[in-house]
Amino acid sequence: MKTLSNFTFRFLYVIVSCFFLIGCTSLKYGKPIDSNATKETVNLYHNLAKLSKNHTLFGHQHATEYGHGWTGEENRSDVKSVTGSHPAVIGIDLMGFSGSSEDIVKKNKDNLRKIVSDTYDRGGVVTVAWHFSNPVSGGGFYWKDSISKPAVRYIIPGGESHDIYKEILDGIGEWAKSVKGNDGKLVPMIFRPYHEFDGDWFWWGKKHTSREEFISLWKFTVSYLRDSLGVNNFIYAFSPDNRYLTEEEYLERYPGDEWVDMVGMDNYGDLGRNRNSVDTAALKLKIVSDYAIKKKKLAAFTETGLESIPDTTWWTETLLKTMKKEKLRMSYVLVWRNDSRSPTHYYAPFPGQVSVPDFLKFYGDPYTIFEDDLKNIYRK
């Protein structure tokens, strides 16, 4: 019987070790619900899980698209103007992917494709919201009495507008599979549809759809993008608003572990100007974090903020204290956008804003991660 050469033995040892390590990583941190997820998507998933043990990535919605008093400037963000670094997580929105002419939709897709690719090339992370205009009536993405229709029942399988919804998802899927970095790889994205579904302000909100209808919508959306269209670069995030105090309440419309990669929460009220409650916010985040740990999912504080940031120590005395209070494992925390025209609608500081000194302390804290702190988050 021939014996293995030293080279062959070492080669086989490396191969077996690699498979063993991949398996151990999956066992320890879980894995994406897409079994065909790209290597970069899997790596992002695992690296976010590992980083969340001791750190949280800081995110800002529309950070590089526009900011306080400006729009469309290359490689600019208000956060970078203050700290020298972009946020680690850049929030974008697919709201412009339907409800307009083909030319406008194409322009919106092209603009976002560049923003996402540029973020990936710099080493940052992208999270995708979807303020989806009502596909069966007027009223936009908000619910408007006497105008809006309860669209969920129309667009789920068996609904009379289901084919319209599939066409909209076709456009999202085609776009997602076209977004690549300079390395030629598909860019991983955290896709967060139908957020704040436990409120009533959106047409997909709790008052306008049943639990069964919402779960059907979620499952079909994931299945169609992942299984029918072959979108393999999405991490799927589930994020209600803050209307819960128990795990049971949090999971009331949860579609099941096989349909969700990341659990999150949007919470402005508990950290806002009039109802500052670090303890309550931390309790709700702990429910999310504990569930993620138990089920080997990712967790995130998917939206928060204090409009106009009049509190000069909000970053360290409110947000950071909340994040650190319960030894949470949050992949990221994202604050909302800075409107380019409004003098008061902003959630991140810009040069001269009163919370800048405190934000620099927040930036310098070892717990927070910004884009310049990220190293190879898409590699194993």
Structure description:
This protein has a single domain (30-373), classed as TIM Barrel, CATH 3.20.20. Helix 9 (278-295) crosses helix 10 and helix 10 (314-325) runs parallel beside helix 11 (356-364). It has helices at residues 6-29, 39-51, 78-83, 102-122, 152-155, 162-176, 211-228, 247-250, 278-295, 314-325, 356-364, and strands at 56-61, 66-67, 70-71, 89-93, 125-129, 189-192, 234-238, 262-266, 298-304, 332-335, 368-369. The strands form two sheets. The chain has an eight-stranded parallel barrel. The chain is of the alpha/beta class. The protein is 38% helix and 12% strand.
Brief descriptors of the model:
alpha/beta; TIM Barrel; two-stranded antiparallel sheet; 11 helices; 11 strands; 38% helix
* CATH architectural name: Alpha-Beta Barrel
Q: Kindly state the percentage of residues in helix.
A: 25-40%
Domains, number: 1
Structural category: alpha/beta
- β-sheet strand percentage: 5-15%
Poorly predicted residue ranges: 1-22
Largest sheet: 8 strands, parallel, barrel
- Give me the count of strands: 11
Question: How large, in whole angstroms, is the Cα Rg?
Answer: 21 Å
Q: How many individual helices?
A: 11
Query: What name does the CATH topology carry?
Result: TIM Barrel
Order of helices and strands: HHEEEHEHEHHEHEHEHEHEHE
Largest sheet: spatial strand order:
1-4-5-6-7-8-9-10
- Identify the CATH homologous superfamily: Glycosidases
Tell me, what's the shape?
A: globular
Head-to-tail CA distance between termini = 38 Å
